[in-house]
Design goal:
By secondary structure, the chain is of the alpha/beta class. It is built from 17 helices and 14 strands. The strands form five sheets. It has a five-stranded mixed sheet, with helices on both faces. It has a three-stranded antiparallel sheet with strand order 9-12-11. Strands 1-10 form a two-stranded parallel ribbon. α6 links the parallel β3 and β4. α4 packs parallel to α12, α9 crosses α10 and α13 runs parallel beside α17. The longest helix is centred in the C-terminal third of the chain and has 20 residues. It is globular, with a radius of gyration of 22 Å. The structure holds ligand P61. The site of ligand P61 has 18 residues, from α5 and α6.
Length: 469
């Protein structure tokens, strides 16, 4: 062939494939002009969380609660049983979690952090350590509010955006063993394991790692709980990259992985393709009894946990859709398409490309900015100004402050996240995003940083305000 134009498949040396769905309903987008974006950003204190979504063109703030539901999920919403107690949709949800994740006892919650709150309150005694494969903002905060001390035991490669190790979400077992040897098994509340590590760039954990982790924790009588929020995407990486898993389905890999853990919490707003919802599920009846008792204090009765019956139905159906191999491949490959474009243009991103987002390496974008001038927040502001695309800071602002010293946590990773909602945007949107990132890259040397002028006490990144330097 002599043409220099190539389809996406041809660019990768294979036959093309497409999304396993067609679009039935659309939501028109609006793009405001540059002057209006300048004004909107100033009113938002240069914080993309404070923009009105009507002022956003392509919204890559998060993949949380932003997925498109299927016609089957919408139909399921109409079968909502809004009984206060014993809703049929709860039993459908329980059955889906048992079937696909494999845990016995299920507590619904309004979203992920509701579940994090419950497990932290029940399973952490004041002063105990909670080792985890990198922190997540809400997870660590709930652990700290329960009196726990978070300890990062992820492998070193996870903190290096240029390391191309395939399973950068893995726990470094030596780090964990040293912690157990130093502090004693009784001082460890549980190991907090996340399937695909959000803050590391959506990096997966291997089956080999969870198996070894299971052996180590069992030897010391320590519980292992999983943040299953993006575990389906983790299963895809195992299928593609880990020896022996190529011929297994995502569903089988998911269940095998969960089988190595004692329980899980979930923000169903991600993998499970719903706009709201979460759960906590465990195998131990005694623990379940405590959780079931606490849920009625903070969320709602144990058969609705802060959700409407229709929300639980959409979640039950979404779980089954989320583990379909063609769906997961399409979802992760769309993220990869955007990442490969940026990599080709030598724009610095976290490698390997993760499951739910592209993470721009703001340190390498703006080497002239100190971390205290908030390079990742600056880059999020610049992208919005260029094209109305909304991204999210995942650096020093997100990391917050240490409760013991009051100083900023200073993460090695200073990243701006372009998060791709599931089943929402097309390849053409990805092209527009890539070109906007390129424009910000080309303007990098002229870009100045920010100063923080308002800082809330908890999860400051949501509401902090900044001014341009
Ligand atoms: C996100 F800026 N994630 O990535 P909830 N575990 C994990 C998550 O990714 C997660 C939760 C638990 C969000 C929403 C969000 O700092 C932020 O249902 C791995 O959101 O309560 C949520 O689940 C919590 C954005 C959360 C943030 C915290 O965009």
């Amino acid at each position: 062939m002599t043409s220099h134009l190539q389809t996406m498949g041809q660019q990768s040396g294979r036959r093309s494939w497409a999304e396993p769905w067609k679009i039935k309903m659309v939501e028109p987008l609006r793009m405001i002009d540059r002057a209006a974006r300048e004004q909107a950003l100033a009113e938002a204190g240069c914080n993309t969380f404070l923009l009105r979504s009507d002022d956003v063109y392509i919204d890559l703030l998060t993949d949380s609660g932003t997925s498109a539901m299927s016609d089957r999920q919408w139909a399921g919403m109409m079968t909502g049983d809004e009984a206060y107690a014993g809703s049929r949709n709860y039993y459908n949800l329980e059955a889906a979690i048992r079937q696909y994740y494999g845990y016995r006892y299920v507590v619904p919650t309004h979203q992920g952090r509701g579940a994090e709150h419950l497990i932290s309150q029940v399973a952490i005694k004041r002063g105990q350590y909670v080792p985890g494969n990198m922190y997540f903002t809400t997870t660590r905060l709930h652990q700290e509010l329960a009196g726990g001390i978070f300890v990062d035991v992820i492998c070193d490669e996870a903190h290096d955006p240029q390391s191309t190790a395939p399973f950068k979400g893995n726990v470094d077992l030596d780090k964990l063993e040293r912690l157990i040897a130093r502090e004693g098994a009784a001082s460890i509340a549980y190991v907090s394991l996340a399937g695909t590590v959000n803050m590391a760039g959506g990096q997966p954990v291997s089956m080999e790692n969870v198996r070894a982790l299971r052996q180590l924790t069992a030897k010391h009588g320590i519980r292992l709980y999983l943040d299953a929020t993006r575990m389906v995407e983790n299963a895809f990486f195992i299928q593609q990259q880990e020896p022996g898993y190529r011929d297994k389905t995502i569903a089988a890999i998911l269940k095998e992985f969960c089988g190595h853990t004692d329980g899980a919490w979930m923000s169903a707003k991600k993998d499970s393709l719903v706009n709201i919802g979460g759960w906590l599920a465990v195998d131990d009846w005694n623990l379940f009894e405590e959780l079931r008792n606490l849920v009625v204090v903070y969320e709602g009765l144990h058969t609705y946990g802060g959700l409407a019956g229709r929300d639980m139905e959409a979640m039950a159906i979404g779980i089954a859709e989320s583990v379909q191999d063609d769906h997961v491949r399409c979802r992760v490959e769309q993220v990869r398409y955007l990442g490969e474009l940026l990599s080709e243009w030598e724009i610095p991103i976290v490698r390997p490309i993760g499951g739910h987002a592209i993470f721009l390496d703001a340190r390498r974008f703006y080497p002239h900015l100190a971390q205290d001038e908030f390079p990742a927040q600056t880059l999020a502001a610049e992208l919005y100004l260029d094209s109305g695309i909304r991204s999210m800071e995942r650096g020093i602002v997100s990391a917050g402050r240490s409760p013991s010293t009051g100083d900023h946590y200073r993460p090695k990773l200073e990243l701006t996240r372009l998060t791709i909602p599931r089943r929402v945007y097309t390849q053409a949107h990805m092209d527009v995003v890539a070109e906007s990132v390129l424009a910000a890259w080309q303007n990098r040397e002229r870009t100045r940083g920010l100063k923080m002028v308002y800082e809330p006490k908890y999860l400051r990144f949501f509401q902090a305000r900044f001014e341009r330097l």
